[in-house]
Amino acid sequence: MALYITDECINCDVCEPECPNAAISPGEEIYEINPDLCTECVGHYDSPQCQDVCPVDCIPKDPERVETREMLQAKYERLIAQGR
């Protein structure tokens, strides 16, 4: 699954620089995660770095974007092949 940021986000800015795929960016009101770039850090780390640093625990898995670890790995490989 890709991750997403809930409206509990306090815009603390700690998640954005931790994302190895540059999937996190400021939105209109809170930070947002681009699901096409989010691999839950598969290929980079053992756990999602944004979740690890979030002080308010507002970055759950997105039930609308169910992806297996294999799918996340394939997405990671596509992103690397595209030079991301």
From TrEMBL:
Do you know which InterPro entries this protein is assigned to?
A: 4Fe4S_Fe-S-bd, 4Fe4S_Fe_S_CS, PSI_iron-sulfur_center, YfhL-like
Q: Does the keyword Iron apply?
A: yes
Ranges for domain 4Fe-4S ferredoxin-type: 1-29, 31-64
Q: Name one GO molecular function term.
A: metal ion binding
Q: Which Pfam families match?
A: Fer4_7 (PF12838)
Task: Please name the SUPFAM superfamilies in this protein's record.
Answer: 4Fe-4S ferredoxins
Alphabetically list the UniProt keywords: 4Fe-4S, Electron transport, Iron, Iron-sulfur, Metal-binding, Repeat, Transport
Keyword Kinase applies: no
Protein name according to UniProt: Ferredoxin
Its ancestry begins with:
Bacteria, Pseudomonadati, Pseudomonadota, Gammaproteobacteria, Chromatiales
